[in-house]
Amino acid sequence: MKIAVLPGDGIGPEVTAQSVKVLRAIASNRFELEMQEAPIGQAGVDAAGVPLPPETLKIAGQSDAILFGSVGGPTDELPDRSKRPGAGLLKLRKTLSLYANFRPAVLFPELIGASTLRPEIVEGVDMMILRELNGDLYFGEPRGVHVEDGKRIGINTMRYSEDEIARIAHVGFQTARKRRGKLCSVDKANVLETMQLWREVVMEVGREYPDVELSHLYIDAAAMMLIRNPRQFDVIVTGNVFGDILSDAAAMLTGSIGMLPSASMGEGTLGLFEPVHGSAPDIADQDIANPLASILSSAMLLRYSLNRPDEADRVERAVRSVLAAGYRTADIYQPGTRKVGTTEMGDAVVAALEHDV
Ligand code: NAD
Ligand code: IPM
Ligand code: MN
Protein backbone atom coordinates (compact mmCIF):
# COMPACT_ATOMS: atom_id res chain seq x y z
CA MET A 1 0.00 0.00 0.00
CA LYS A 2 1.32 3.40 -1.02
CA ILE A 3 0.49 6.50 0.96
CA ALA A 4 1.30 10.01 -0.21
CA VAL A 5 2.11 12.16 2.81
CA LEU A 6 1.50 15.87 2.23
CA PRO A 7 2.17 17.66 5.54
CA GLY A 8 1.76 21.21 4.19
CA ASP A 9 2.20 24.25 6.41
CA GLY A 10 1.91 25.54 9.98
CA ILE A 11 0.79 22.78 12.35
CA GLY A 12 0.28 20.46 9.35
CA PRO A 13 3.75 18.85 9.60
CA GLU A 14 3.52 18.58 13.42
CA VAL A 15 0.20 16.73 13.48
CA THR A 16 0.93 14.67 10.36
CA ALA A 17 4.14 13.36 11.97
CA GLN A 18 1.98 11.87 14.77
CA SER A 19 -0.30 10.19 12.22
CA VAL A 20 2.70 8.76 10.40
CA LYS A 21 3.94 7.21 13.69
CA VAL A 22 0.49 5.71 14.27
CA LEU A 23 0.27 4.29 10.74
CA ARG A 24 3.74 2.77 11.03
CA ALA A 25 2.82 1.18 14.35
CA ILE A 26 -0.43 -0.20 12.89
CA ALA A 27 1.26 -1.62 9.80
CA SER A 28 4.38 -2.83 11.67
CA ASN A 29 4.84 -6.37 10.38
CA ARG A 30 1.19 -6.91 9.43
CA PHE A 31 1.21 -5.20 6.03
CA GLU A 32 3.53 -3.21 3.78
CA LEU A 33 3.13 0.52 3.93
CA GLU A 34 5.20 2.72 1.68
CA MET A 35 5.02 6.42 2.52
CA GLN A 36 6.23 9.14 0.21
CA GLU A 37 6.31 12.75 1.33
CA ALA A 38 5.74 15.74 -0.98
CA PRO A 39 5.29 19.51 -0.54
CA ILE A 40 1.93 21.29 -0.92
CA GLY A 41 0.58 24.73 -0.04
CA GLN A 42 3.12 27.32 1.06
CA ALA A 43 5.67 24.49 1.18
CA GLY A 44 4.91 23.82 -2.51
CA VAL A 45 5.33 27.51 -3.35
CA ASP A 46 8.66 27.57 -1.49
CA ALA A 47 9.93 24.35 -3.11
CA ALA A 48 8.60 24.64 -6.66
CA GLY A 49 6.89 28.02 -7.09
CA VAL A 50 3.31 26.65 -7.05
CA PRO A 51 1.04 25.39 -4.25
CA LEU A 52 0.50 22.04 -6.00
CA PRO A 53 3.78 21.09 -7.72
CA PRO A 54 3.24 18.65 -10.64
CA GLU A 55 5.44 16.06 -8.88
CA THR A 56 3.21 16.23 -5.78
CA LEU A 57 0.08 15.71 -7.89
CA LYS A 58 1.74 12.75 -9.59
CA ILE A 59 2.72 11.11 -6.29
CA ALA A 60 -0.78 11.71 -4.90
CA GLY A 61 -2.52 10.33 -7.99
CA GLN A 62 -0.43 7.15 -7.99
CA SER A 63 -0.98 6.34 -4.32
CA ASP A 64 -3.67 4.28 -2.59
CA ALA A 65 -4.40 7.09 -0.15
CA ILE A 66 -3.31 10.63 0.62
CA LEU A 67 -2.58 11.81 4.14
CA PHE A 68 -2.83 15.58 4.18
CA GLY A 69 -1.94 18.05 6.96
CA SER A 70 -3.05 21.64 6.38
CA VAL A 71 -2.11 24.55 4.17
CA GLY A 72 -1.91 28.29 4.62
CA GLY A 73 0.82 30.86 5.04
CA PRO A 74 2.23 34.23 4.07
CA THR A 75 1.07 33.95 0.44
CA ASP A 76 -2.58 33.54 1.54
CA GLU A 77 -3.41 37.10 0.54
CA LEU A 78 -1.67 37.17 -2.86
CA PRO A 79 -3.75 38.77 -5.59
CA ASP A 80 -2.78 35.86 -7.87
CA ARG A 81 -5.22 33.25 -6.55
CA SER A 82 -3.42 30.37 -8.25
CA LYS A 83 -0.36 30.98 -6.04
CA ARG A 84 -2.24 30.85 -2.74
CA PRO A 85 -1.63 27.79 -0.53
CA GLY A 86 -5.34 26.86 -0.37
CA ALA A 87 -5.47 26.71 -4.18
CA GLY A 88 -3.17 23.67 -4.02
CA LEU A 89 -5.66 21.74 -1.90
CA LEU A 90 -8.63 22.80 -4.04
CA LYS A 91 -6.83 21.71 -7.20
CA LEU A 92 -5.93 18.36 -5.67
CA ARG A 93 -9.57 17.71 -4.66
CA LYS A 94 -10.85 18.75 -8.09
CA THR A 95 -8.23 17.04 -10.27
CA LEU A 96 -8.68 13.71 -8.48
CA SER A 97 -12.52 14.15 -8.52
CA LEU A 98 -12.73 13.73 -4.76
CA TYR A 99 -16.25 15.11 -4.47
CA ALA A 100 -17.63 13.48 -1.32
CA ASN A 101 -16.20 14.93 1.87
CA PHE A 102 -17.11 13.00 5.03
CA ARG A 103 -16.73 15.07 8.19
CA PRO A 104 -17.88 13.06 11.20
CA ALA A 105 -18.58 15.05 14.37
CA VAL A 106 -18.57 12.60 17.24
CA LEU A 107 -18.32 13.50 20.90
CA PHE A 108 -16.03 11.23 22.88
CA PRO A 109 -17.78 10.89 26.26
CA GLU A 110 -14.48 11.77 27.99
CA LEU A 111 -14.66 15.24 26.39
CA ILE A 112 -18.20 16.09 27.41
CA GLY A 113 -16.91 18.90 29.61
CA ALA A 114 -14.52 20.27 26.99
CA SER A 115 -17.22 21.74 24.75
CA THR A 116 -18.28 25.34 25.18
CA LEU A 117 -21.86 24.02 25.13
CA ARG A 118 -23.61 22.47 28.13
CA PRO A 119 -23.04 18.72 28.63
CA GLU A 120 -26.73 17.84 28.30
CA ILE A 121 -26.78 19.49 24.84
CA VAL A 122 -23.73 17.73 23.40
CA GLU A 123 -24.11 14.34 25.11
CA GLY A 124 -24.38 11.58 22.51
CA VAL A 125 -23.59 13.79 19.49
CA ASP A 126 -22.74 11.52 16.56
CA MET A 127 -23.34 12.98 13.12
CA MET A 128 -21.83 12.78 9.68
CA ILE A 129 -21.61 16.01 7.72
CA LEU A 130 -21.33 15.17 4.05
CA ARG A 131 -19.97 18.15 2.14
CA GLU A 132 -19.95 18.32 -1.66
CA LEU A 133 -16.39 19.25 -2.60
CA ASN A 134 -16.07 19.84 -6.34
CA GLY A 135 -18.68 22.50 -7.11
CA ASP A 136 -20.51 25.56 -5.76
CA LEU A 137 -19.05 29.06 -5.33
CA TYR A 138 -15.60 27.47 -5.06
CA PHE A 139 -15.40 26.57 -8.75
CA GLY A 140 -18.25 28.37 -10.57
CA GLU A 141 -17.50 30.71 -13.48
CA PRO A 142 -17.50 33.63 -14.09
CA ARG A 143 -15.40 34.75 -11.16
CA GLY A 144 -12.93 37.48 -10.38
CA VAL A 145 -12.62 41.15 -9.66
CA HIS A 146 -12.93 43.69 -12.48
CA VAL A 147 -13.49 47.41 -12.81
CA GLU A 148 -16.78 48.95 -13.96
CA ASP A 149 -17.15 52.74 -14.15
CA GLY A 150 -13.99 53.12 -12.10
CA LYS A 151 -15.29 50.85 -9.29
CA ARG A 152 -14.14 47.31 -8.47
CA ILE A 153 -16.75 44.56 -8.75
CA GLY A 154 -16.20 41.10 -7.24
CA ILE A 155 -17.97 38.09 -8.74
CA ASN A 156 -18.31 34.45 -7.78
CA THR A 157 -20.88 32.08 -9.21
CA MET A 158 -22.86 29.50 -7.31
CA ARG A 159 -23.17 26.62 -9.75
CA TYR A 160 -24.35 23.04 -9.48
CA SER A 161 -25.43 20.70 -12.26
CA GLU A 162 -28.13 18.15 -11.54
CA ASP A 163 -25.63 15.33 -11.99
CA GLU A 164 -23.32 16.82 -9.36
CA ILE A 165 -26.21 17.15 -6.92
CA ALA A 166 -27.51 13.65 -7.65
CA ARG A 167 -24.14 11.94 -7.08
CA ILE A 168 -23.62 13.53 -3.66
CA ALA A 169 -27.27 12.88 -2.77
CA HIS A 170 -26.81 9.17 -3.51
CA VAL A 171 -23.78 9.12 -1.22
CA GLY A 172 -25.87 10.86 1.45
CA PHE A 173 -28.73 8.36 1.27
CA GLN A 174 -26.35 5.39 1.23
CA THR A 175 -24.46 6.79 4.21
CA ALA A 176 -27.71 7.31 6.14
CA ARG A 177 -28.76 3.75 5.37
CA LYS A 178 -25.65 2.44 7.10
CA ARG A 179 -26.27 4.66 10.14
CA ARG A 180 -29.57 5.67 11.78
CA GLY A 181 -31.47 6.12 8.51
CA LYS A 182 -31.92 9.89 8.67
CA LEU A 183 -30.73 12.38 6.07
CA CYS A 184 -31.08 16.15 6.41
CA SER A 185 -30.34 18.15 3.27
CA VAL A 186 -29.22 21.72 3.95
CA ASP A 187 -29.76 24.40 1.30
CA LYS A 188 -30.98 27.95 0.73
CA ALA A 189 -33.82 27.03 -1.63
CA ASN A 190 -35.96 29.94 -0.44
CA VAL A 191 -33.61 32.47 -2.04
CA LEU A 192 -31.16 30.85 -4.50
CA GLU A 193 -32.16 29.13 -7.76
CA THR A 194 -29.13 26.82 -7.56
CA MET A 195 -30.32 25.67 -4.15
CA GLN A 196 -33.89 25.24 -5.42
CA LEU A 197 -32.45 22.81 -7.96
CA TRP A 198 -30.45 21.20 -5.14
CA ARG A 199 -33.64 20.51 -3.18
CA GLU A 200 -35.56 19.21 -6.22
CA VAL A 201 -32.80 16.79 -7.19
CA VAL A 202 -32.30 15.55 -3.61
CA MET A 203 -36.04 14.84 -3.44
CA GLU A 204 -35.98 13.02 -6.79
CA VAL A 205 -33.03 10.86 -5.69
CA GLY A 206 -34.84 10.27 -2.38
CA ARG A 207 -37.58 8.31 -4.16
CA GLU A 208 -35.02 5.54 -4.62
CA TYR A 209 -34.46 5.40 -0.86
CA PRO A 210 -37.92 5.12 0.74
CA ASP A 211 -36.31 3.56 3.82
CA VAL A 212 -34.33 6.75 4.56
CA GLU A 213 -36.14 9.56 6.37
CA LEU A 214 -35.38 12.73 4.38
CA SER A 215 -35.73 16.23 5.81
CA HIS A 216 -34.68 19.69 4.61
CA LEU A 217 -33.40 22.76 6.42
CA TYR A 218 -32.31 26.16 5.23
CA ILE A 219 -28.68 26.87 6.09
CA ASP A 220 -29.51 29.63 8.58
CA ALA A 221 -31.92 27.42 10.54
CA ALA A 222 -29.51 24.48 10.28
CA ALA A 223 -26.76 26.53 11.92
CA MET A 224 -29.14 27.37 14.75
CA MET A 225 -30.36 23.76 15.13
CA LEU A 226 -26.79 22.50 15.27
CA ILE A 227 -26.33 24.51 18.46
CA ARG A 228 -29.88 24.11 19.85
CA ASN A 229 -30.32 20.38 19.46
CA PRO A 230 -27.36 18.73 17.73
CA ARG A 231 -28.46 15.19 18.62
CA GLN A 232 -31.31 15.39 16.09
CA PHE A 233 -28.78 15.02 13.24
CA ASP A 234 -27.65 11.72 11.77
CA VAL A 235 -26.37 12.57 8.26
CA ILE A 236 -26.34 16.11 6.87
CA VAL A 237 -25.76 16.53 3.13
CA THR A 238 -24.93 19.99 1.84
CA GLY A 239 -22.95 21.99 -0.70
CA ASN A 240 -19.33 23.03 -0.62
CA VAL A 241 -19.70 26.43 1.06
CA PHE A 242 -22.37 25.55 3.62
CA GLY A 243 -20.52 22.33 4.47
CA ASP A 244 -17.29 24.23 5.09
CA ILE A 245 -19.02 26.48 7.61
CA LEU A 246 -21.26 23.91 9.32
CA SER A 247 -18.37 21.49 9.91
CA ASP A 248 -16.24 24.08 11.74
CA ALA A 249 -19.27 24.92 13.88
CA ALA A 250 -19.91 21.21 14.54
CA ALA A 251 -16.31 20.89 15.73
CA MET A 252 -17.24 22.75 18.89
CA LEU A 253 -19.82 20.08 19.72
CA THR A 254 -16.91 17.64 20.06
CA GLY A 255 -14.77 19.94 22.22
CA SER A 256 -12.34 21.36 19.68
CA ILE A 257 -11.61 21.70 15.99
CA GLY A 258 -8.50 19.70 16.87
CA MET A 259 -10.76 16.62 17.15
CA LEU A 260 -12.44 16.69 13.72
CA PRO A 261 -11.14 14.35 10.98
CA SER A 262 -12.26 14.08 7.37
CA ALA A 263 -12.17 11.85 4.31
CA SER A 264 -12.62 13.03 0.72
CA MET A 265 -13.63 10.32 -1.71
CA GLY A 266 -14.44 9.94 -5.41
CA GLU A 267 -15.77 6.93 -7.30
CA GLY A 268 -12.87 4.61 -6.43
CA THR A 269 -11.01 3.83 -3.22
CA LEU A 270 -8.41 6.61 -3.50
CA GLY A 271 -9.13 9.12 -0.78
CA LEU A 272 -7.64 12.23 0.77
CA PHE A 273 -7.59 12.28 4.56
CA GLU A 274 -7.15 15.49 6.48
CA PRO A 275 -8.10 17.21 9.69
CA VAL A 276 -10.88 19.77 9.20
CA HIS A 277 -8.75 22.50 10.82
CA GLY A 278 -6.24 24.72 9.05
CA SER A 279 -2.57 25.54 9.53
CA ALA A 280 -3.24 27.43 12.80
CA PRO A 281 -0.30 29.87 12.49
CA ASP A 282 -1.10 31.18 15.98
CA ILE A 283 0.08 27.92 17.58
CA ALA A 284 2.48 26.54 14.95
CA ASP A 285 5.98 25.28 15.92
CA GLN A 286 5.15 25.15 19.63
CA ASP A 287 4.33 21.45 19.94
CA ILE A 288 0.90 22.28 21.41
CA ALA A 289 -1.50 21.50 18.52
CA ASN A 290 -3.94 18.63 18.98
CA PRO A 291 -2.91 15.78 16.64
CA LEU A 292 -6.06 13.71 17.23
CA ALA A 293 -7.96 15.13 14.22
CA SER A 294 -5.08 13.96 12.03
CA ILE A 295 -4.79 10.60 13.82
CA LEU A 296 -8.56 10.04 13.46
CA SER A 297 -8.18 10.95 9.76
CA SER A 298 -5.65 8.12 9.54
CA ALA A 299 -8.26 5.78 11.00
CA MET A 300 -10.60 6.91 8.21
CA LEU A 301 -7.78 6.26 5.73
CA LEU A 302 -7.47 2.68 6.98
CA ARG A 303 -11.24 2.20 6.74
CA TYR A 304 -12.10 4.00 3.49
CA SER A 305 -9.02 3.52 1.28
CA LEU A 306 -7.07 0.53 2.60
CA ASN A 307 -10.11 -1.58 3.51
CA ARG A 308 -8.69 -2.30 6.96
CA PRO A 309 -11.70 -1.72 9.25
CA ASP A 310 -10.19 -3.69 12.14
CA GLU A 311 -7.08 -1.51 12.15
CA ALA A 312 -9.27 1.60 11.89
CA ASP A 313 -11.17 0.43 14.97
CA ARG A 314 -7.88 -0.14 16.78
CA VAL A 315 -6.73 3.44 16.12
CA GLU A 316 -10.07 4.82 17.32
CA ARG A 317 -9.91 2.62 20.44
CA ALA A 318 -6.37 3.85 21.13
CA VAL A 319 -7.54 7.49 20.91
CA ARG A 320 -10.39 6.68 23.26
CA SER A 321 -8.06 5.05 25.76
CA VAL A 322 -5.58 7.95 25.89
CA LEU A 323 -8.51 10.29 26.51
CA ALA A 324 -9.78 7.94 29.23
CA ALA A 325 -6.28 7.96 30.73
CA GLY A 326 -6.58 11.74 31.01
CA TYR A 327 -4.19 12.92 28.26
CA ARG A 328 -5.24 16.31 26.88
CA THR A 329 -3.69 18.86 24.57
CA ALA A 330 -4.27 22.51 25.53
CA ASP A 331 -7.39 22.94 23.36
CA ILE A 332 -9.30 20.20 25.25
CA TYR A 333 -7.62 20.60 28.64
CA GLN A 334 -9.68 20.70 31.81
CA PRO A 335 -8.47 20.84 35.40
CA GLY A 336 -7.81 17.36 36.73
CA THR A 337 -6.52 16.05 33.40
CA ARG A 338 -2.93 15.80 32.20
CA LYS A 339 -1.77 18.46 29.74
CA VAL A 340 0.51 17.09 27.01
CA GLY A 341 2.05 18.42 23.80
CA THR A 342 1.58 17.28 20.22
CA THR A 343 4.40 14.73 20.26
CA GLU A 344 3.52 13.33 23.66
CA MET A 345 -0.09 12.85 22.57
CA GLY A 346 1.09 11.02 19.43
CA ASP A 347 3.40 8.82 21.53
CA ALA A 348 0.56 8.04 23.94
CA VAL A 349 -1.65 6.85 21.05
CA VAL A 350 1.17 4.65 19.73
CA ALA A 351 1.72 3.20 23.22
CA ALA A 352 -2.02 2.52 23.58
CA LEU A 353 -1.98 0.74 20.21
CA GLU A 354 0.84 -1.48 21.36
CA HIS A 355 -1.08 -2.48 24.48
CA ASP A 356 -4.18 -3.36 22.49
CA VAL A 357 -3.14 -6.42 20.49
P1 NAD B 1 -7.51 27.25 11.68
O1 NAD B 1 -8.36 26.02 11.66
O2 NAD B 1 -6.13 27.09 11.21
O3 NAD B 1 -7.47 27.82 13.17
C1 NAD B 1 -8.64 28.29 13.86
C2 NAD B 1 -8.40 28.25 15.38
O4 NAD B 1 -8.40 26.88 15.81
C3 NAD B 1 -7.06 28.83 15.80
O5 NAD B 1 -7.24 29.47 17.04
C4 NAD B 1 -6.17 27.61 15.97
O6 NAD B 1 -5.14 27.76 16.90
C5 NAD B 1 -7.18 26.55 16.45
N1 NAD B 1 -6.78 25.20 16.02
C6 NAD B 1 -6.80 24.72 14.75
N2 NAD B 1 -6.34 23.48 14.72
C7 NAD B 1 -5.99 23.15 15.97
C8 NAD B 1 -5.43 21.97 16.58
N3 NAD B 1 -5.13 20.88 15.87
N4 NAD B 1 -5.19 22.01 17.92
C9 NAD B 1 -5.49 23.08 18.64
N5 NAD B 1 -6.03 24.21 18.14
C10 NAD B 1 -6.27 24.25 16.81
O7 NAD B 1 -8.28 28.35 10.84
P2 NAD B 1 -7.83 29.84 10.39
O8 NAD B 1 -7.07 30.48 11.50
O9 NAD B 1 -9.04 30.47 9.88
O10 NAD B 1 -6.87 29.61 9.16
C11 NAD B 1 -5.44 29.56 9.24
C12 NAD B 1 -4.89 29.15 7.87
O11 NAD B 1 -5.28 27.82 7.57
C13 NAD B 1 -5.41 29.99 6.72
O12 NAD B 1 -4.33 30.16 5.84
C14 NAD B 1 -6.50 29.15 6.08
O13 NAD B 1 -6.69 29.41 4.73
C15 NAD B 1 -5.93 27.79 6.29
N6 NAD B 1 -6.90 26.68 6.34
C16 NAD B 1 -6.50 25.51 5.77
C17 NAD B 1 -7.30 24.39 5.86
C18 NAD B 1 -6.83 23.12 5.24
O14 NAD B 1 -5.67 22.99 4.94
N7 NAD B 1 -7.67 22.14 5.04
C19 NAD B 1 -8.51 24.44 6.57
C20 NAD B 1 -8.88 25.66 7.15
C21 NAD B 1 -8.06 26.78 7.04
C1 IPM C 1 -11.31 23.25 4.57
C2 IPM C 1 -10.60 24.55 4.30
C3 IPM C 1 -10.44 24.76 2.80
C4 IPM C 1 -11.83 24.90 2.19
C5 IPM C 1 -9.55 25.96 2.37
C6 IPM C 1 -8.20 25.92 3.01
C7 IPM C 1 -9.36 25.98 0.88
O1 IPM C 1 -11.27 25.61 4.92
O2 IPM C 1 -10.81 22.20 4.13
O3 IPM C 1 -12.34 23.24 5.24
O4 IPM C 1 -12.40 25.99 2.19
O5 IPM C 1 -12.34 23.89 1.70
MN1 MN D 1 -12.85 24.94 6.33
In one word, what is the shape?
globular
Give the CATH superfamily of the largest domain.
Answer: Isopropylmalate Dehydrogenase
pLDDT average, as an integer?
97
Strand order of the largest sheet: 2-1-3-12-11-4-5-10-8-9
- Looking at the overall shape, the CATH architecture of the largest domain is 3-Layer(aba) Sandwich
Poorly predicted regions are none
Q: Which sheet architecture does the biggest sheet show? A: 10 strands, mixed
Helices, by number, come to: 12
Q: What does the secondary structure layout of this molecule look like, with pairings?
A:
Elements: E1 2-8, H1 12-27, E2 34-37, H2 42-48, H3 54-61, E3 65-70, H4 85-95, E4 100-106, H5 119-122, E5 126-132, E6 140-148, E7 151-157, H6 162-178, E8 182-187, H7 193-206, E9 213-218, H8 219-228, E10 235-238, H9 240-251, E11 263-265, E12 271-273, H10 292-304, H11 309-324, E13 327-328, E14 338-339, H12 342-355
Parallel strand pairs: 1-2, 1-3, 3-12, 5-10, 8-9, 8-10, 13-14
Antiparallel strand pairs: 4-5, 4-11, 6-7, 11-12
The protein binds nicotinamide-adenine-dinucleotide, 3-isopropylmalic acid (IPM) and manganese (II) ion.
Overview of the structural elements:
The protein is an alpha/beta fold. It has 2 domains: 1-99 and 266-357, Isopropylmalate Dehydrogenase (3-Layer(aba) Sandwich); 103-258, Isopropylmalate Dehydrogenase, CATH 3.40.718. Helices cover 40% and strands 20% of the residues. It has 12 helices and 14 strands. It has helices spanning 12-27, 42-48, 54-61, 85-95, 119-122, 162-178, 193-206, 219-228, 240-251, 292-304, 309-324, 342-355, and strands at residues 2-8, 34-37, 65-70, 100-106, 126-132, 140-148, 151-157, 182-187, 213-218, 235-238, 263-265, 271-273, 327-328, 338-339. Strands 2-1-3-12-11-4-5-10-8-9 form a 10-stranded mixed sheet, sandwiched between helices. The chain has a two-stranded antiparallel sheet with strand order 6-7. Strands 13-14 form a two-stranded parallel ribbon. The longest helix has 17 residues, at 162-178. The mean pLDDT is 97. 3-isopropylmalic acid binds at residues 86, 89-90, 244, 276, 278.
